[in-house]
């Protein structure tokens, strides 16, 4: 019965546009894949209202100290890990604020554990260990929409009061029945039949990019389109921090380098020090008053 259900899934069906893939030239294969990939952005556009709903719920909860969890198996789990791991260096978030949980644990990130996805109980156990509550959001990621591991996780997360989101690539997916919000981005059959690491995974990566970026913008971690909360932990990022400061305050490279050093390479602090003529400590206090929102802090001092 389960096998029959799998056969009816869009993600498992054959793509007539790539039926002769093995006879194509290199350029022919690439053109087919490129053409199929163009459909992904169009499919994502259709689910933007559900993505927006998810973003708003995350922002509301994070403002109360909540967290975001991505949970999935295989490629779906890896995509969650990639997005979560980029949040601390990009937005100076705590590693606990955006977390990824994967079937089979971190070891499965490097080496596939295909059977790890088949247990709802494992998904329940893994999310329960993270102690989710009503302030948190849990996003279950599964291309097929019927993977037991994230389904179990969403069931348990709902029991604990968390807001739950299903991210799948099939319509009327099973996981959606256990979610407060359902994002079903239907990208069609894969070029390589059933290989959801292709279009399905690309669509999920695009959506997670949108979610994490939009959330962090609304939490005041972006000014204009600049990463003012970037964690300047290496040479490249320190230069980027100086470049951001220069762009916002219109100062020389030399002054930017000096000011950034005096601000402990905290871009928002350096901006407030320059624009409002504050000491490091004073700038930190003003930003703290406005919960790190640079635009609000700036408006309070300059208008």
Automatic annotation (TrEMBL):
Q: Which residues form the SIS domain?
A: 58-221
A Pfam entry, by short name: GKRP_SIS_N
Any GO BP annotation: peptidoglycan turnover
Keyword set, alphabetical order: Carbohydrate metabolism, Lyase
Q: Which domain of life is it from?
A: Bacteria
Please give the NCBIfam families that the UniProt record associates with this protein: N-acetylmuramic acid 6-phosphate etherase, PRK05441.1, PRK12570.1
Instruction: Identify this protein by name.
Output: N-acetylmuramic acid 6-phosphate etherase
Which species is the source of this protein?
Answer: Salimicrobium halophilum
Biological classification of the source:
Bacteria, Bacillati, Bacillota, Bacilli, Bacillales
